[in-house]
Amino acid sequence: MAIGLVGREVGMTRVFTDAGETVPVTVIEVLPNRITQVKSQERDGYRAIQVTYGTRRPQLYSKALAGHYAKASVAPGKALIEFRLTDGDKTELQAGAELKADLFKAGEAVDVTGTTIGKGFAGTIKRHNFAGGYASHGNSLSHRAPGSIGQRQTPGRVFKGRRMSGHMGVGRRTNENLRVVEVDLERNLLLVRGAVPGAEGGQVIVRPSLKAARRATRKIIAPAKAGPAPAASPAKAAKK
């Protein structure tokens, strides 16, 4: 099932496993995810679960959006997010229900999506991992210069996609196949192994791992067993 949760990145810490191994984890606080609509193939053309989270001033809502929340009998939230469902997913969730951290279990693989930290205007060494120029031997002004960005009169322009200096960060990124180390149901927390995109306090979306689900349903074809070597023909045996 592809239903996920919207949460807030609290920060990073370390936990110890039963084997004594220290594991770096990111603490994600699961915000109250209230279901506003359950979309169906017959009515909407696709299947999805629509949720909202957080709170917002009533003055910022349009009448249409306020009526949408009132129809689902849920408190208005910051935004609406949809989680698509496949044809094989079965769900009994209804509008007005609330999703919590118990949607995931320890050991499950998840994908975490967030907005990366803004770095401002950055050069090519920081932004694209360029090597830079020589430190000495005739290099006086080009230690961190990007180098050539094109040719001369032909074609007489810089090609689209050329890696150059510019704004870095504030992009939507997804870290895949992160393991859920622990689920704290009392405080509605998820402890995910490793780092996730974004700064502390930023919004993140946690979904079941897409690649892990594909691997689980992938058909495994066993290699053909090698049989006995074919016997030599009588004519070839006579020649020998």
Structure in words:
The protein is α+β, with helices and mostly antiparallel strands and 240 residues long. The chain is built from five helices and twelve strands. The protein has helices at residues 41-44, 63-72, 124-128, 210-217, 234-239, and strands at 5-16, 22-30, 33-39, 48-52, 80-84, 98-99, 109-115, 120-122, 166-168, 172-184, 189-193, 203-208. The strands form three sheets. A six-stranded antiparallel beta barrel has the order 1-2-11-10-7-12. Strands 5-4-3-6 form a four-stranded antiparallel β-sheet. Strands 8-9 form a two-stranded antiparallel sheet. The longest helix has 10 residues, at 63-72. It is extended. The N and C termini lie far apart (66 Å).
Sheet of most strands: 6 strands, antiparallel, barrel
Q: Which stretches are low in confidence, meaning pLDDT under 50 for 5 or more residues running?
A: none
Which CATH class of the largest domain is shown?
Answer: Mainly Beta
Count the domains: 2
The name of the CATH architecture of the largest domain is Beta Barrel
Mean pLDDT: 89
Question: How much beta, percentage-wise?
Answer: 25-35%
CATH superfamily grouping of the largest domain: Translation factors
Q: Helical proportion?
A: 10-25%
Number of extended strands: 12
Order of helices and strands: EEEHEHEEEEHEEEEHH
Radius of gyration: 27 Å
Instruction: Assign an overall shape.
Output: extended
- Major sheet strand order: 1-2-11-10-7-12
List keywords for this structure.
extended, 12 strands, 240 residues, Elongation Factor Tu (Ef-tu), domain 3, 2 domains, alpha+beta
